[in-house]
Amino acid sequence: FKQKTAYEIPKRDWSSDVCSSDLMTPEQGLKMDLGLKDRVAIVTGGNRGIGYAISAELLKEGANVVVASLDPGRNAQAVEKLKAGAKGKVIGVPTDLTDPAAIENLFKKTLAEFGRLDILVNNATNVVQGSFFAMDEAAWDRAFENKLRGTVRCIRLAVPAMRERKWGRIVNISGGAAWTPQLGAIATGMNNAAVQNLTVALANELAKDGILVNAIVPTAVRTERHDQNIKDTMAKTGQSEAEVLKPRVAKIPLGRMGTSEEIANVVVFMCSERASFVAGSLWAVDGGVSARL
């Protein structure tokens, strides 16, 4: 009689061949097949920060990725960088989310290149600073044109292709300002709250078509934008980086800020076959900042 070790995990046939496990040592770890090979994804705002990390993780899983960001130069640079280590194909389509024609072009090019669309990650954002009473009509229009209306436009164009295949994943990135309003960035919080409302409503509508809609709610993440905010605060206050970070980190139960890659890992899981019974959820990825019943 030979006793099995804790790491001898038997192979299984799940009929879809999506999640089979090989025997591995503790050093190798357990590889989870997410069933994303050859899937086609559009990631808005995919040229830096959280969007870039999401694009990179999807490509590692064998998905094909279309990076859609406003700046053509940065978009092209991101695509070239993403090609290293990618197991899927990546292309870039510079896209202005405030321009309906540009968004139509994004989806036309995606379908022309790959013939299908399985995943849409609405990551692009536009942080609008300004107090409620200081913002004029034009400022309010601009605030909602990018995040909320851009998300709406993309979903409208993504759904027909997903319905055709009876399979789809839509993941909306909605910042924590939706849950913790800040008067100095009230338009940003309202945009995020609206996206969450849209997420739940569409999840109910599209589930019957095999399209799962969810939102990820990240907070306290060290992105380029957050790093610039730290530098700006240091310049204004004369504080060191450690001094600026101390009160921010103090609010996080895990005692540190998150990384773009940690957000991306959750997003990619939500895009996968493994998340087949998840719809209409708002996933907080914030180190415990928003923990609640």
Short descriptors:
293 residues, 8 helices, 7 strands, alpha/beta
Describe it:
This protein is an alpha/beta fold. The protein is 42% helix and 12% strand. The chain is built from 8 helices and 7 strands. The protein has helices at 49-60, 72-82, 100-114, 137-165, 186-206, 224-237, 241-250, 260-270, and strands spanning 40-44, 64-68, 90-92, 119-122, 168-173, 211-218, 282-285. Strands 3-2-1-4-5-6-7 form a 7-stranded parallel β-sheet, with helices on both faces. Strand 5, helix 5 (186-206) and strand 6 (211-218) form a beta-alpha-beta unit. The longest helix is centred in the middle third of the chain and has 29 residues, at 137-165. The radius of gyration is 20 Å and the shape is globular. It starts with 39 loop residues before the first strand and ends in an 8-residue tail after the last strand.
Question: Which helices and strands, and how do they pair?
Answer:
Blueprint (H helix, E strand, L loop, with lengths): L39 E5 L4 H12 L3 E5 L3 H11 L7 E3 L7 H15 L4 E4 L14 H29 L2 E6 L12 H21 L4 E8 L5 H14 L3 H10 L9 H11 L11 E4 L8
Parallel strand pairs: 1-2, 1-4, 2-3, 4-5, 5-6, 6-7
Please describe the biggest sheet, giving its number of strands, its sense, and whether it closes into a barrel: 7 strands, parallel
How far is the N terminus from the C terminus?
48 Å
Output mean pLDDT. Answer: 88
Helix proportion range:
40-55%
> How many H/I helices?
8
Order of strands, main sheet, comes to 3-2-1-4-5-6-7
**Regions with pLDDT < 50 over 5+ consecutive residues?**
1-28
Strand content: 5-15%
How many runs of DSSP E, i.e. beta strands? 7
**Which outline best applies?**
globular
Computed CA radius of gyration, to the nearest angstrom: 20 Å
Order of helix and strand elements from N to C terminus: EHEHEHEHEHEHHHE
- Counting helices, strands and paired strands, the structural category is alpha/beta
